[in-house]
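pinning this so it doesn't scroll away 📌
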Amino acid sequence: MALTYEKVKVLHISELEPLIGKKVIIGETQIGLFLMENGEVRAINNVCPHKQGPLSEGTVSGHYIFCPLHDQKIDLDTGRVQEPDKGCVTTYPVEIIDGDVYVCL
């Protein structure tokens, strides 16, 4: 059985700056969007699992985001917190259609 997603248009790609996070809210969910150096967009839950820091305000390096509160390193592809820390955040598929960015929930 194939998974079905609800695609939600959140913004136009021109509203994103490379390697600078942007917070969007869909319903009750805060999502951090990140335009990577290769032009792809990553979407993750915007709340760090450690101290609930706003990940969209963190520093991007490679395919990682560093939490602005305690510098936890989180993989933007998988959502996994890197050792020695532990935890995980939800990642969301992203589609770009005619420049519009959709997050798939």
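📌 and the second one:
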Amino acid sequence: MPIADITIIPIGTETPSVSSYVAEIQKVLQRNEGKVKYQLTPMSTLIEGELSDLFDVIQQLHEVPFANGIQRVATNIRIDDRRDKKSTMEGKLQAVKDQLNRS
């Protein structure tokens, strides 16, 4: 299943802090639970789901700063779409943990 790493960057905010925008983005993700799985990290948000659903949710997330008065937004998207076997966020982490336990 595809996994996307997304960073939404509102440009032209009054303060260096963007936590209020991140919180609004998380609310959009909560509304899309069941459609995608997501995980907030200190630097970005990971979402997992069918590719068409990811693109739909990414568009919703990209719109959040605009809906809050920002006039310019930069969105970075990185997608890992492995099709030779099932891939999940948890599975990718477990594979690393398994390698660590072998040492």
